[in-house]
Amino acid sequence: MERLRHERENYLEMLLPLVKLGLYTSEEVRKVIDRWTKQDIAKRRYKQEDTTFKMILEQEKEARKDFIKRVSKYYIKELSEYLVFDKRISDTFVWYLNRFPIRVLVWKDYIAFLIESEHANHEVLNAFTKAFKFNPRCDELWTLFTTYLSSMPEDNYRKVLQSVIANNPYEEEVYLMYFRFELDQILTKKKVILFNTDLVEKKEEQIKEQQIKYAPKTTIAHQKLLKAVESLTPLYTILRIIYEEAKSKLKGYHYVVGMIDSVYDVPECEELKKTMLEYLFSMTDKKVDIMKELALTYYERNPQLGFEVLKNPVFNDVSEKAKEKVFNEMRGLSGEEVKPKLPYEISIEKIKKIADLNAKLNVMKTEILNIDRTYIEQLKDECFDIIMVEEESVVKEFIDWLLKTVCSYDTYIKMAKYFEEKKDYKSALNVFDTGVRLGWIAKGSAEFWVEYLLLCRNSGDYKRGRSVHEAMKKLYKNPDEVDVMFESRVNN
């Protein structure tokens, strides 16, 4: 009885400010205290927690609605100290969850209530922290947490994640969230800088055309922007720190696969990705599981990448039966049979994703130099199709590089046609000359010789045409075929 009396006194103290404001009468406050007292007695009943919990929530939510209606008639500057019904609802959730901490749906309702009623961030964070403590692998809670964080300013977001890591140091998901958050921040800053750089480049081009005297100032601005891009490099170290911290605390591998997937298309993270892959491959006791997760993760990014994982020499000692099982599972993801892509098709997909022109050119050259010789001609041909829409200086530079290698007759013809359309007959003829010297494929193509002869004719270089015709008769197996095709093209 003494305890009940003390609780009623506390309740009266909480509710008196509402009487002073004129929101409630003394009689209404007494009824609220009586209701709360009955609720407290009900909480002590054994094995009736679920019923009591639902009853209290229903009663207090109705009381809260009534309170909000009354408040709407008054202008109250600071309302927080009068939110007694919010506190009552919150205390009810806490009471119930202390008894049943693995009830995920109740945690979701509690957190949703805190967010909806605009409780302080630290209260919401505390609720998430406790929820994760008892339900660390609940996807629903992590999804709700991600949604909540997305509405926060950058600094608050970071502090919240750091706090959750401190309270859940052995939970993979939170490290992965932190890793992706910092990566997004870096990539966003990079995107802004590159956008501004592009604007400056366009402005410089306009200045150059109009010969405005302020060009030096713009060039300085451009240099500053390029330095700003370079200044982002140290920020990528943060990602390595998060990875190393996770590695020191966690024993699993799921977070590593997630981090690798996150930085897959980030050139600045190639070394980090390599380090993480080496760590994965060192877990020999989990090789089959790692192969499966890595293959399925890559498959969702690009089916061919998933197939390539199964062919990785690291997994040579994995049974064919295990690989076939993963292969069939990958095919099941799309519901249809997916034909593995050829290496040159994979290279082209990779190239097309790159926005920066210089980076694209470098990747093209690297892919051409490293691809299996079986597919090199197709790759060169596709690369030229991609690059020929760029500025003339860029195309010429790429053609100069291509001509130092052996190309298919189609590629030689395309390069020559490019110059011919621009009336640059000298460069066009040089392409065919190079094809004759280096291109054994070109020498065996009637189409190549026909186009070469037509170019000599169109450029008015008949002397050269006769020389080319003589060379064709020596080098091509069926000169008459070329003559017939040439005459047909000229006459039509």
TrEMBL record:
<dbReference type="GO" id="GO:0032040">
    <property type="term" value="C:small-subunit processome"/>
</dbReference>
<dbReference type="InterPro" id="IPR013949">
    <property type="entry name" value="Utp6"/>
</dbReference>
<protein>
    <recommendedName>
        <fullName>U3 small nucleolar RNA-associated protein 6</fullName>
    </recommendedName>
</protein>
<dbReference type="GO" id="GO:0030515">
    <property type="term" value="F:snoRNA binding"/>
</dbReference>
<dbReference type="GO" id="GO:0000462">
    <property type="term" value="P:maturation of SSU-rRNA from tricistronic rRNA transcript (SSU-rRNA, 5.8S rRNA, LSU-rRNA)"/>
</dbReference>
<dbReference type="GO" id="GO:0034388">
    <property type="term" value="C:Pwp2p-containing subcomplex of 90S preribosome"/>
</dbReference>
<dbReference type="InterPro" id="IPR011990">
    <property type="entry name" value="TPR-like_helical_dom_sf"/>
</dbReference>
